[in-house]
What we know:
By secondary structure, this protein is mainly beta.
Amino acid sequence: MKSFLLSGACALALATAARADEAPANSTVSQVVVTAPSPLGDLSNVPTTTASLTADQIAATVNVVTPEDALRYLPDILIRERHIGDTQSPVTTRTSGVGASARSLIYVDGMLISSLIGNNNTSASPKWGLVAPDAIDRVDVLYGPFAAQYAGNSIGSVIAFTTRMPKAFEATVEAQGAVQSFAKYGDDATYGTSRFAGDLGDRLGALAFRLSYNHLDSHAQPLTYATATVPGALSTMGLPVTGAFSDASRTGAPIVVLGSMGLEHQVQDNLSGRATYDLTPTLTAAYSFGLFHNDDDAGVNSYLRDAGGQPVYAGTVNIVGRAYTLADSAFSNGVYDLEELDLAQGLSLTSHTGGVFDFALIATSFDTLKSRQRMPSGGLPAAFSGGPGTSTSLDGTGWFTLDASGTWRPPGSRNVVTFGAHDDGFKLNNPKYALGDWIDGSAGQTLTFSRGRTETQALWLQDAWSVTSQVTATLGARYEHWRAYDGLNLSVAPPLDTVQPSLKKDAVSPKATLAYAPSPDWILKASVGVAYRFPTVTELYQAITTGTLLSVPNPDLRPEQAFSSEISAERLWTGGSVRVSLFDERIHNALLSQTAPLLPGSTSLFSFVQNVDRTHATGIEVVADRKDVFVQGLELSGWATYVVAKTDRDPAFLAAQGKDEPQLPRLRAAAVVSYAWTPKVDLSLAARYSDRAFATIDNSDPYANTYQGFGGYFVADAHLRYRVNPHLTADVGVDNLGGRSYFLFHPFPQRTVIADLKYSF
């Protein structure tokens, strides 16, 4: 498979290069200008590698149900979307896995939807639900921390969504359905999803507005499994049961799979919109908002049956002559009810004279108005009807950002100077309450409580200097002052009441890029940059339970310091391009979760976030696209990336030294073939490939194709768009055409058929 994809990528590059000479002799390379309504969404002046897609390209090639689907085939972007509507869908980059969500910045019209409260693939996942998929006008991706206007969280990437603003009256209604066929262990079923959406917008003189509503009702395949390690000795103890499946854990140990858990049913509603007002022909004010509600109920499916055919969830059972003791939590942890209500808002003032000076001001906020997850603490099946439990809340958690920036183009000068100031604040409020009745009981005693805040102020400056008509040098720097404060960890049992110390750090991050265009159809670039990724609130203020003792690791975590570099060569021509990039990333004090003693002198090991002395990632990326290949209307695009990422030095956990970084496969690739068959019909076929990856920092998980492993996969998708008439469009598509069964810690969706009907007024 590796050789097939590498050969395909090389063939695409050679085919496109072979036809490069078809460009007219007097052709010139025009700069792609992103018409973005916010300074943080405008990647037109960034000095290094970017990738972009327009709404029409997305609609013609991707089966889009949720906004993150639009990114599916962009180079080195993987969204860990475990099912349609998943709210725990972080982004991977070419140098970081799904557990490093704080190494990417994601914006919608300048509003930050990256949840920099944490750095994980659960509560710190991006808030995708705040944007409607049909409102997306384009998406742009910046790779690496080489632009001074972005914080050190851009180590991996910056993703900027720009939503559509109407030029005249427009309205659309849409109905969409999806059916997934899923079979694994004792589950063999179909899971359905429906989506209904509507958009309304208009331009009335200086005022333009758009309102979007999106309703999603999604049933998902299992997310987790109840498993048990096979004991070595035979036994006659326990209730005889049938239905378990034999397998191996990611470490290769024999296990039995007892049942599936986390079968989610989500009902989501999203109301979003944007209004712009032209105060003058060159000065625009804008307001954006997103309101997201999610109601999520999860159930379980025990494979175990007693002699009477009834499901078994807990107690001592006997499976093929071996005894297993199942705790109440073995299955009850997979039953929960989650309700979320989020509000994001953004206000901006932007000048766009294109003359000597332009400026932009933007303020955004994100507020968790409600987030309550209820879980039973008793055993099943009794807990299905109620009983004691817990409620975990994130109410009051949120963030704000403030940005002021300017662009100065001195008359008669070859310089374009950009500069700005930034302020942000993040707040964690995370209590856990006891419930007399986990289904509808009111909050009782506070069992645990974590809180904390972080804040960053920054100044940045960047100068793009056209040294000659062929050479451009871009120099920049970012100064940041960071602090963490108001940290508190509280627990009733085991007892803990700790006020955390305040922390602060000042850092300067220099950036430099040199671009050389020896001819209109060649661009050579070299970029270097330093970036500091400061610890998030949940990394600092975490509590670890060790039997009867609850302790907090030293919260004095140091920021990650990344030294990133990239050299690239890009060949352009009319209708296509080929780019080859060599990249390298060295991180000191990498913030990773790993196993180590929690208390001084202890021999007990626990997993928690620590500073790892040094890691590195070095790789090569090939990206190519070509329009009108062989016949008019046939387009081919694709990419392949090979990266070696290692833990170089880790005195706290010597077993990790020299091992691959977790969750990051060595080889990844994707290719898309699209064909405009007629002016009304678009067809596309896409393929995605990934090597296996390790889940653990010491690579102690040799078996990947199992629950909690990160297996390799080759997945094909198909899409057809038919414009019935100027008002009506029908789409049908299939994701995972071959029904591939694979794990990225969780079992991923198998064959899914999607149909869509949209009417535009």
